[in-house]
Amino acid sequence: MFENQVIWITGASSGIGEALARALSADDVRLVLSARRETELERVKSACMDRGLPAANVLALPLDVTDWGAMPGALQTVLDRFGRVDLLINNAGISQRSYCIDTDMAVYRRILEVDVLGQIALTKAVLPQMYAQGSGHIAIMASVAGKIGVAQRTGYCAAKHAVMGFFDALRAEAVHHGVRVTTITPGFIRTNVSVNALKGDGSTFDTMDSDIAGGMDVDRCAAVILDGFRKGVPEIAVGEGPEMKALWLKRFFPKLIFNKVAAMARPR
Fold it and tell me: What confidence tens digit (pLDDT) does each residue in 176-190 have?
């Protein structure tokens, strides 16, 4: 399915984005790897080449998704190199570990700019090219937190709920132009998402959550996501823990989930 496709991954310097890049390197694809940290992008590029992808097929393209003004130029760089974009995986994001009462408004602004507006801005930059070619695929990395609200994640849950709504709505529009939209709802995946999360004052949490540490292997997560792409699944739930059952419980027994997540929250 992915052979000869041009695939652009944001947040590609670590975590799920890096795992997707490595997994896709087994196919004859053209990869565009974006994140803020150029040295880490080059490391991931080398890992993709080690898996057999020619250097000419991998473009490390540093990009801060909050810099909307840089997006037209970034897109043009991709088009000049590969001529098109077939799949955009919006994976850049940042989490939170702080109670609402302790969280600066600047932290909320930062989370929403990265996790929501940055994803929308890059999608809007790429969408006209996909509409013009009459084909394409846009994916967004949401979360179980985009379905269920939990303590110390008010900003993160707000952001993930927002992208679920935006990209569900975009799906209804884009399908008429030959463009697919996929939302992805990971549960606990073994990445540094909690280590890199923001505390209420904007500093990094620098701690690995036990739930994250015991979560699904990131390479297994990438395999499930790519299998969902191949099957045309519009919303891909990926994870192995009890949080995945909570998706079903939230739909049919919302009060039960509200009580459970409240009981899990330790007192401030």
Answer: 999 999 999 999 999
Tokens at 3, concatenated: 């052979």
Cβ neighbours, 10 Å, residue 224: 18
Q: Is residue 139 part of a domain?
A: yes
Contacts of 206 (CB under 8 A, 6+ apart): 195
pTM: 0.94
The first and second tokens of residue 30, run together, are 């053209």
Q: How far apart, in Å, are the Cα atoms of 128 and each of 88, 177, 239?
A: 13, 10, 33
Give the span between the Cα atoms of 58 and 24, in whole angstroms.
Answer: 11
CATH number at residue 212: 3.40.50.720
Q: Are 191 and 213 in contact (CB under 8 A)?
A: no
E-state strands within 15-165:
30-34, 58-60, 87-90, 136-141
Q: Is 156 a catalytic residue?
A: yes
Catalytic residue among 99, 108, 131, 156: 156
Query: Is residue 260 very low, low, confident or very high in pLDDT (cuts 50, 70, 90)?
Result: confident
Domain that holds residue 50: 6-241
Residue 268 has pLDDT above 70, yes or no: no
pLDDT in tens, 116-130: 999 999 999 999 999
| Residues pairing with 140 in the sheet | 90, 183
The residues pairing with 84 across neighbouring beta strands, listed in sequence order, are none
The pLDDT assigned to 256 comes to 85
Kindly state whether residue 88 falls inside one of the protein's structural domains: yes
